[in-house]
Specification:
With 122 residues, the chain is an alpha+beta fold. It is built from five helices and five strands; from the N terminus they run βααααββαββ.
Length: 122
Amino acid sequence: MLAGIGCDLIEIRRMKKACEKEAFLLHVFTEEERRQAGGNFSMLAGTFAVKEAVSKVFGTGFRTFLPQDVEVLRDELGKPYVRLYGNAEVLAGKKGIRRLEVSISNTAEHAMAFAVGEGEAI
């Protein structure tokens, strides 16, 4: 059952500017996200867009959890997937969300993400 959807669009140049501040990088992205991106701002923008889209699936934004509580990684083929931690994991359980599917698209200027939460509506 569909439990929620979310999408987000971000300008890659804004992400690049934000990432010039190490405090932003450390607050928003996990160590593994930073390692996988290897300084690729387009990839970081897509990762951030997924985090925002997931927060919209929950219907809360980042009010009740941190951006790092939603970890966005890529498998060996580049397909993005999400791991939840902390309050994001708790919130997903409270909302009956058992699975998240995400997709990312990029242009030279923008990164867009779409997220779908599946589970049982509570």
